[in-house]
Amino acid sequence: MSTEPSQLVDEPGRGSTIDAAAAARVSPSLYNPDLAPIRREGRRWSAYNIFTLWANDVHSLGNYSFAIGLFALGLGGWQILLVLGLGGAFLFLLLSLSGFMGEKTGVPFPVMSRISFGIRGAQIPAVIRGAVAIAWFGIQTYLASVVLRILIVALAPSAATLDTNSVLGLSTLGWISFVALWVVQVIIVSYGMEMIRKYEAFAGPVILITMVALAIWMLSSADWSIAWTTPDSLTGVDMWLQIVGGASLWVAIYGTFVLNFCDFTRNATSKRAIVAGNFWGIPLNMLVFGGIVVTLAGAQFRIDGRIIEAPADIVKEVPNTLLLVLAALALLILTVAVNLMANFVAPIYALNNLFPKHLNFRRAALISAVIGLVILPWNLYNSPAVINYFLGGLGAILGPLFGIIMADYWLVRRSQINVLDLFTTDSGGEYHYAKGVNMRAVVALVITAVAALLMAFVPAFKVVSEFSWFIGAGLGAVVYLLVADRRGPFTDVSGEPIAVASTH
Fold first, then answer.
1. What is the predicted pLDDT for the residue at 46?
2. Which of 382, 417, 420 is nearest to 138 (CA)?
3. What is the pLDDT of residue 207?
4. Which of 165, 181, 313, 398 is the most buried (most CB within 10 A)?
5. C-beta neighbour count of 210 within 10 angstroms
6. In angstroms, rounded to a whole number, what is the distance separating the alpha carbons of residues 113 and 129?
7. Which among 430, 437, 470 is positioned nearest to 451, based on CA atoms?
8. Cα separation of 486 and 265, whole Å?
9. What is the residue range of 424's domain?
């Protein structure tokens, strides 16, 4: 099915001067202004913007809980820094390779998935990634609402009376806090990726300054001395196994983001911007993060022999109400920033990919947010079965997905991509395969997904569970390379003729 060039864009200012010949092959079932390639001229994401993505995401509350947990597991200061350094080095490589794909093609993750899975088969990875993200969007909003409840009670102690009942599993104050944060995020996202870019740029310095200040305050409270180890510190082989396992888990935490990093780098000004942003934001920023973790955990242990679980534990003990409020606000700003980038953007593009004729960025954002609300995420978070089996199972499949997509792009096609054919249903299109599905990729995913799920849930494989993301990604790549059609020819065609101007 073809369409006239003027029909390709239904939003003012999004797609001027689309080439008529290229537009004739574009299918409206695969194309809308949010899925279309971004024109190179006018892209806005600089190295600083990419750095601020990581300035926010690396310093998330979940990451602090993970890293502080390493202290509790018996790793000392230098071992924790080594864990984060090794993980950061791996992530720098993986995220740069993933980011280059977006910079070259200008398309979001669901469209990128069409290369290896086919124009219709791409719904599989897009829906898996989107489902994980929507659930975590709701859960992270709930966790942020807990911080907001603390803040509200600190400012108005009488509000504590609203925190004693339960309506669908949440108190009245809990509902007020959750809905308030839900509305804030919906408003931000309704203005598109450009507003997300500006918010991330604002939030990055705020959280860095806050966490450094919190570390200095803790250090002063501990008489400028910290405990580098605990009495239960590991040594020898056990220590090194924990270091390597911790580094692997650190990479696995970003297993979702390495898949859809192209959602952001499609707007990058150049590959150099991606490399610079990733370098300052991943390995170097992670070492700063590690220094803060070691200071917070070590200072608290020096003070009273207690191992904290998260920065929020320290914030609650800040004696000055004004400082407590400022710290809590910073944590809220951070959590919203992380949620927007990690859990809101992916389902928006996944829904756009499912219904390109009917949805745009704003509508898809609202639908994603509503789903994140109606699933009552606090009940999901408090259900080990849901977290471990549903979200854990979907998360385990992300490793094989990454391996398949990266192997196809870099090793089979050697980055030779026909961007125009990503948007056509013509049977002669390069990514039509068999009725729009590349069964070779689907078979590789099924085989390696089974292996990944076994590693995630079968006790006998517990010894390698920490490395499950790497093993899954490696297996996905190897199996796909064994079954892939390497005959080609693979063509490299720019998407500029059907690209839209960057408003992202």
1. 96
2. 382
3. 85
4. 398
5. 21
6. 11
7. 470
8. 27
9. 5-498
Report how far residue 171's alpha carbon sits from residue 403's, in angstroms, rounded to the nearest whole number: 43
Q: Cα–Cα–Cα angle for 189, 123, 131, nearest 5°?
A: 50
Alpha-carbon span 140 to 145, nearest angstrom: 8
Q: Does any domain span residue 503?
A: no
Buried b / exposed e across 149-165, counting CB within 10 Å, b at 16+? bbbbbbeeeebeebbee
Predicted local confidence at residue 16, as pLDDT: 46
DSSP tally for the chain: helices H, then strands E: 23, 0
Place of tokens 């993980």: 87
Number of domains in the chain: 1
Assigned token pair, 497: 């003729």
Q: Identity (one letter) of the amino acid at 129?
A: R
Whether 203 and 56 have beta carbons less than 8 Å apart is answered as yes
| Six token digits for residue 498 | 């059907």
Neighbours of 35 (CB within 10 A): 22
CATH number (domain holding residue 92):
1.10.4160.10
Residues whose CB falls within 8 Å of the CB of residue 12, separated by 6 or more in sequence, listed in order: none
Tokens 């009670």, located at residue: 153
Backbone Cα Rg of the chain: 23
Give the contacts of 6 (CB within 8 A, at least 6 positions apart): none
User: Over 261-274, what HEC string results?
Assistant: CHHHHCCECCHHHH
User: Is there a contact between 383 and 396 (Cβ–Cβ < 8 Å)?
Assistant: no
User: Mean pLDDT of residues grouped by 10 in the chain (504 residues)?
Assistant: 42 53 86 95 95 91 83 88 95 97 97 98 94 89 89 91 94 96 95 92 89 88 88 86 90 88 96 97 94 90 81 69 81 89 92 94 95 93 74 82 97 97 95 96 96 87 84 95 92 95 75
User: 498 with 420: CB under 8 angstroms?
Assistant: yes
Task: Give the type of residue at 504.
Answer: H
Q: What phi, psi does 167 have (nearest 5°)? A: -125, 110
Instruction: Report if residue 504 sits inside a domain.
Output: no
Crossing angle for the helix pair 236-253 and 77-105, to the nearest 10 degrees? 30
Q: Is 242 contained in some domain?
A: yes
DSSP state for residue 414 in the 8-state scheme:
T
CA atoms of 290 and 78, how far apart (whole Å): 9
- Residues 274/208, Cβ–Cβ less than 8 Å: no
* 202 lies in some domain: yes
Closest residue by Cα to residue 211 from 282, 98, 323, 296: 296
What's the whole-model pTM score? 0.89
Asked if 497 and 19 count as a contact pair (C-beta separation under 8 A), the reply is yes
439 exposure class (CB count in 10 Å sphere: 0-12, 13-18, 19+): middle
> Cβ distance 177 to 155 under 8 Å?
no
